Amino acid sequence: MTTIPVAPSKVADLGEVDLLVLPVRDDDGAVLAVAVPENVAGFSVPQVFDEDFARSTGTGAGESTAIRGFGGPTLLLVGIGSGDLEGWRRFGAAASRAGRPGQHVALVVPPKDAAAQEAAALGALLATYRFDRHRSTQREGVGSIAVASSSIVGLDKAVASAATTADAVAFAKDLINEPAGHLSPSEMAKRAATRLKAAKHTTVEVWEKARIEKEKLGGLLGVAQGSLEPPRLVIGRYVPEKATAKTPHIVLVGKGVTFDSGGLSLKTGAGMMTMKTDMSGAAIVVAALGACDDLGVKVKVTAIAPMTENMPSGSAVRPGDVLTARNGKTMEILNTDAEGRLILADALCIGAEMEPTVMIDVATLTGAQVVALGSDIAASYATDQALSNALFDAGEAEGEHNWPMPLPAYYRSHIDSEVADMKNIGKTGEAGSVSAALFLQEFVGETTWAHLDIAGPGRSEVESGYKTRGATAFSLRTLLTYLRTLR
Ligand code: BES
Ligand code: MN
Ligand code: ZN
Question: Which end of the chain is less congested by CB atoms within 10 angstroms, N or C?
Fold first, then answer.
């Protein structure tokens, strides 16, 4: 987890700095330093670099060139691209990645631009994430990161928000990266509860198996019955200080399959390799809830996270079996590997019963989503255009793209069953992410609802910019940005 100290500072007050990072942008072929005072820590900083130099470096977001010999710390010029939030995040990431172990890195950001300041700090922090818990030697990171500006006005708040967001992302990634052998459903619930108990204005309940039975969560119980590990359901609630009966209420639901072997419809060896990450949705909604108070979210938020393993065994659910979800609808299991929708069915019922303003679920739901949109775009589904647009805009702002997909009623036939109200698979080779979304829709009633299928972008095999390998916690920042806009 990130423990790099990050501090806001006035440029004039910067202490020990090994690497001073200046944002640069293209100015008609010249490389222009953006908002940098002429004097930093006692030496003068060039403002415009000559054309020869301009040709040797780039100003694209995150492109960097180090220069020495100005009499102070190493200067690192890093491009901000077009200067949008993504540019500033990549600027921050390039800065912190350039710092050697133990070094003090200072990023210079423009004054009075809270959005750019927060984005730069966030990029710097996100890029430092490492999952070293199971390595006998820990990789050492930079010693400290200072975010400096000529004016301190607003900088504290911007840097604090970035630190909160980065910490939420690191918390989610730590859960997601944790091997399934170390993170049973009960262990995940315990870590989630500990996290939420530490957050202000937040309460948490953990349902154990007896309660799950009493509450008739037939989908969750059906998936869990093949595992030696009992299921859990975590419900966290955030109620802001000034909440009234009229305050909007957002319910977040996340898929928490701590390991997806496929069950009796067993996955291949390769297909199973990454399936410890199949609880990403649950980790994301818990992490989001835990950050609400620190980010000053003004609406009520509830997180619902069903947790279970999907394992094959003599007690496992069989293809052909029928399960009854909380709302009484019956589900014919034809492929036990389509388990996410079964546990989400119950969780969405619980959420819908709360009659929230909006309900959003996040799930690593289908391989078909990866085929449709690849590793960098999530599929979004919504019963409401304004909600779809809001999530799209939040995703664009955060560099977590989601693309609107349809919920066509005329595809409902894809999940028609002979023996039950629906079957848990669609047509072979056709619209698999869509039929999974239509399945979920059966459990939301009249609630304004959106679904993010993050199977593709939920993990990354590459490291780039502020993105780290393994868990990405993709859509967590989108949710936080969305929640922060609501009143
Ligand atoms: N967890 C998987 C989806 C997944 C696949 C996530 C690849 C991330 C990467 C899900 O439970 C699953 O197995 N879905 C099946 C459904 C099918 C049997 C209808 C799939 O997509 O193959
Ligand atoms: Mn599966
Ligand atoms: Zn799964």
Answer: C
CA distance 80 to 482: 24
Band of residue 134 on the pLDDT scale cut at 50, 70, 90 = very high
Among 431, 434, 471, residue whose Cα is nearest residue 451: 434
Asked if residue 75 has its Cβ within 6 Å of ligand 1, the reply is no
Whether 425 is in the pocket of ligand 1, judged by its Cβ within 6 Å, is yes
Ligand nearest to the CA of 366: 1
Task: Please give the distance, rounded to the nearest whole angstrom, from the Cα atom of residue 388 to the centre of ligand 1.
Answer: 24
Query: Which ligand is located closest to the Cα atom of residue 271?
Result: 1
Mean pLDDT of 302-327: 99
Sequence-distant (≥ 6) Cβ neighbours of residue 97 within 8 angstroms: 127
The residues that are catalytic are 267, 341
Q: Model pTM?
A: 0.97
335 CA to middle of ligand 2, Å? 9
CA of 427 to the centre of ligand 3 (A): 18
In this structure, the residue with its CA closest to atom 13 of ligand 1 is: 337
- Which residue do the tokens 């297909």 mark? 271
- Ordered DSSP codes for 99-157: SPTT-EEEEE--TT-HHHHHHHHHHHHHTT----TT-SSPPP--SEEEEEES--TTHHH
> In the CATH hierarchy, which top-level class contains the domain 6-164?
alpha beta
With a pLDDT cut of 90, the percent of the chain lying above it is 86
| Residue 364 near ligand 1, beta carbon < 6 Å | yes
CA-nearest residue for atom 5, ligand 1, is: 367
Report the pLDDT averaged over residues 193-204.
98
In CATH terms, 178-485 corresponds, of 3.90.800.10, 3.30.950.10, 3.40.630.10, 3.40.50.720, to 3.40.630.10
**What are the boundaries of each domain within the chain?**
6-164, 178-485
Q: pLDDT tens digits, residue range 386-425?
A: 999 999 999 999 999 999 999 999 999 999 999 999 999 9
